[in-house]
Amino acid sequence: MLTTSRSRRATTLSSFALLAIAFMTGCSTDSPPQHSERLQKAAGLKVFYVETSKELWEKTSDQEGRDGPDLEIKSTSKDLDNGLVQVALTGVSLTNYLRVLDYMGHGGADSKNFGKHRQAESIRMYNEISGVLDDTTKRPDPKDPPLRAVVDDAFVEAKSK
Questions:
Q1: CA–CA dist 74, 92 (Å, integer)
Q2: Buried b (16+ CB within 10 A) or exposed e, 98-115
């Protein structure tokens, strides 16, 4: 009887351990290896511009259902003559935006989405911004214009039709 009790307890503990591991890995993202370095670069910027369509910006920056200081995205925007909007983000907001894009584009899961997110628009935006950050090898001079990523989503719309 004592052996059976120990066996059940060991089985129960093993099951809980496996569930905990599955839960922790199931909620993580498949972040690119350079993600942490990109966040650090972004955090140090005074301002970063994203020029894109209003629709793509709204889809990838939607704040509904998100909260917490690591997810808050504060921005200002203005319409450009070419039909795009120019969105200005502080370094902290850019860092938070990259976290959201990473989650939505690289496999984050939540209670509404039992599978993992692989949102094409978030992947595209993440890749464009990352390219600018990756190309920045030294601290920008204060006299230099702010870094910017131009993301025209025309090909995304064409592929979805």
A1: 9
A2: bbbbbbbbbbbeeeeeee
Separation of alpha carbons 112 and 130, rounded Å: 28
Q: What is the pLDDT of the chain when averaged over all its residues?
A: 79
47: nearest Cα among 160, 154, 146, 118:
146
Answer yes or no: are the C-beta atoms of 87 and 57 closer than 8 Å: yes
The reported pTM is 0.73
Give Cβ neighbours of residue 94 (< 8 Å, ≥ 6 apart): 42, 43, 45, 48, 129
Helices 35-43 and 120-135 pack at an angle, to 10 degrees, of 70
Closest by CA to 107, choosing from 33, 37, 25, 49, is 25
Cα–Cα distance between 13 and 19 in angstroms, integer?
10
Tens of pLDDT, residue by residue over 42-96, are: 999 999 999 999 999 999 998 776 666 667 899 999 999 999 999 999 999 999 9
- Checking DSSP bridges between strand 75-79 and strand 85-89, what pairing results, if any? antiparallel
Alpha carbon distance 31, 28 (integer Å) = 9
